[in-house]
Write a structure and sequence with these properties.
Number of strands: 17
Shape: globular
Order of helices and strands: EEHEHHEEEEEHEHEEEEEEHEE
Strand order of the largest sheet: 12-11-16-10-9-6-5-15-14
Helix content: 10-25%
Length: 375
């Protein structure tokens, strides 16, 4: 039986249950989507990112009835990575040339989807019939290199990985990445942990409420990371967790639910505390074209990041001390736990020989702050 961390923080703001429906790695397939407030697709919508593939997937997502729909690309969505496609696109689409601008416009000009290309937004759910909650989200398509695919960085190049994952704002509540962090829902069919260690370290520093991913199909599932914020000598340390998710949706018509609410589930030890206004700040997008879901107010987050001396990164202690990673600790000690979800839909790997086995979407219920306390 899982026992949550001893001290749950008191959340001063009023909260309300918000339902996220999470999918990834659909690879041209469509599945029945449960009802919810927010839909997240973690990438690999297609097999090779052709216009026809993307058009069908985007049309399916456009039809889905959610107040907010968030999408990141994956390594198989080749045309969405302009630099990669210009160099290698003909190896995949030599018999049917593709225009990457047209492919990208399917997402960037969608009237219902918010396309996160290594970017962040503050979401306010504004529908009178919805929860009217708010959260900060960051989404990124990047993964360590494994073959010749899009949105990749060198597998063993820590500097390249750090250059990418340092961009995650500290205020992030929901982190959406195509690939998993090292040792967290990343075990491949070869029994190896294939996730990114630098992303795991970034998770320790940001400590979002939820980290959603896909990419490693066999890693589908849920776990909870308890962050060690007491160790002064071991970097990026985690506490041992006894949490085991038993999928309630196996072999029946029920949702594959993760209940993190206080009323019916086991809430996270994470109050979503924000850093001071002198670090990441938000500014409203006044003219953002059509890439805004109807009924959803979005904001873009601009952050210079928190970059302490290399000798103190990942170390706990007094946030005011020069011997701790104070920039990510000060005012943020209520962020002690993260729920990690790998929501891959395809259970088998590309090129998917034989009948395809599909997983259900994973549904997450979580209490989030209400932005309109007067409503």
């Amino acid at each position: 039986m899982y026992e949550p961390p001893v001290s749950l923080p008191t959340v001063p703001r009023r909260t309300r249950r918000t339902r996220f429906v999470c999918i990834s790695d659909t690879h041209n397939c469509t599945v029945k989507l449960p009802k919810g407030d927010v839909l997240i697709h973690c990438g690999d919508l297609t097999n090779q990112g052709s216009f026809r593939e993307l058009e069908k997937q985007v049309a399916w997502l456009d039809r889905a009835e959610f107040e907010c729909k968030l999408v990141v690309a994956g390594n198989h969505d080749l045309t969405l990575d302009t630099e990669f496609f210009e160099q290698y696109g003909n190896y995949f689409h030599n018999n049917s040339p593709q225009n990457p601008v047209d492919c990208q416009n399917l997402l960037t000009q969608s009237k219902s989807l918010i396309y996160l290309l290594h970017s962040s937004h503050t979401i306010k759910l504004t529908s009178p019939s919805g929860p009217r909650t708010t959260f900060d989200v960051f989404g990124s398509p990047y993964t360590p290199a494994n073959g010749r695919w899009a949105f990749q960085y060198p597998h063993l190049d820590s500097a390249a990985a750090e250059g990418i994952w340092k961009d995650i704002p500290l205020n992030t509540d929901i982190l959406v990445t195509h690939g998993p962090a090292h040792t967290h829902r990343d075990e491949s069919r070869h029994r190896g942990a294939t996730g990114c260690e630098i992303l795991r370290q970034a998770l320790w520093r940001v400590r979002p409420r939820i980290a959603v991913c896909g990419h490693v199909h066999e890693g589908r599932g849920v776990e909870r990371i308890c962050w060690d914020l007491e160790s002064k000598f071991v970097r990026y340390k985690e506490l041992e967790s006894t949490y085991q998710w038993e999928d309630p949706g196996v072999g029946n018509n029920r949702n594959c639910l993760v209940d993190l609410t206080a009323k019916t589930g086991v809430p996270l030890d994470n109050d979503g505390s924000k850093v001071s206004s002198s670090t990441p700040t938000a500014c409203t997008i006044h003219n953002s074209g059509t890439n805004i879901a109807a009924g959803v107010s979005t904001m873009t987050t601009v952050s210079d990041g928190a970059n302490p001396g290399i000798g103190t990164r990942g170390l706990r202690g007094n946030p005011a001390s020069a011997r701790s990673d104070g920039a990510v600790l000060a005012g943020r000690l209520g962020r002690r736990e993260t729920c990690v979800v790998n929501c891959a839909i395809q259970a088998t790997n590309y090129p998917h020989s034989g009948p395809r086995k599909l997983n259900k979407p994973i549904v997450i219920d979580i209490d989030l702050p209400v932005w309109d306390d007067g409503f």
